[in-house]
Amino acid sequence: MGPSKNVTECPKCGDKELGIGKHSGYSVMQPDNKMRFGSEVKYIICTACGYIIEGYVQKPAKFKGTRF
Ligand SMILES: [Zn+2]
């Protein structure tokens, strides 16, 4: 899985200029129950209003087994 190619406009304001941002460094998403390194998170962001349309961790397999 990765960012959807079919997202072409912001569902909030309708702007068509979308950008991609990421969380990395100290802002990684980390597995809740493990002392492990986390995974970078990437976002599809509306460049007009700032709405985050989609977000993805880059290594989703790290989060397996964290929910009971
Ligand atoms: Zn927008």
Summarize the model shown.
With 68 residues, the protein is mostly beta strands. It contains no helices and 3 strands.
Textual characterization of the structure:
The structure is a single chain. The protein is 0% helix and 26% strand. The model has no long low-confidence stretch (mean pLDDT 85). It has strands at 18-23, 41-46, 52-57. It has no helices and three strands. A hairpin with a 5-residue loop joins strand 2 (41-46) and strand 3 (52-57). The protein is mainly β and 68 residues long. The chain has a three-stranded antiparallel beta sheet, with no helix packed on it. The protein is elongated. Bound molecules: zinc ion. Residues 10, 12-13, 15, 46, 48-49, 51 line the site of zinc ion (ZN).
